[in-house]
Amino acid sequence: MQFDSLSDFLSMGGYGLYVWCSFGIFIFAMVFLVIHTFFISKQLKQLLIKNEKRQQRIKDSQQHKQSENGSTSL
């Protein structure tokens, strides 16, 4: 389809409102999806780091208790 002017292009043969609204909604959805994914990824990374630190503290605590129990029995 060829257009004679910019206004013909924007009106899209009378369907411009629907066409441009659908493009706008699509672009909004894609931008939202990218931003949302970025923030969720960041939260998950922080949660994983927090969980790893917690697991390490638990492991260290268990080793400390075992070393105390071993030294008191001597």
Task: Compose a concise summary of this entry.
The protein has 74 residues and is mostly helical. It contains two helices and no strands.
How would you portray this structure in words?
With 74 residues, this protein is mostly helical. It has one domain (6-72). The chain is 85% helix and 0% strand. It is built from two helices and no strands. The chain starts with 5 loop residues before the first helix and ends with a helix. The relative contact order is 0.05. The mean pLDDT is 90.
Give keywords.
single chain; 74 residues; mainly alpha; 2 helices; 85% helix
Distance between the termini: 92 Å
* Average of the residue pLDDT scores: 90
- The percent of residues in helical segments reads over 70%
Structural class: mainly alpha
Give start-end ranges of low-pLDDT stretches: none
Strand fraction = under 5%
The radius of gyration computed from the alpha-carbon positions, rounded to a whole number of angstroms, is 30 Å
Quickly count the domains. 1
The 3D shape can be described as rod-shaped
Tally the beta strands. Answer: 0
**Biggest sheet details:** none
Instruction: Quickly count the helices.
Output: 2
Series of secondary-structure elements, N-terminal to C-terminal? HH
How are the SSEs placed, and which strands pair?
Layout: H1 6-11, H2 16-72
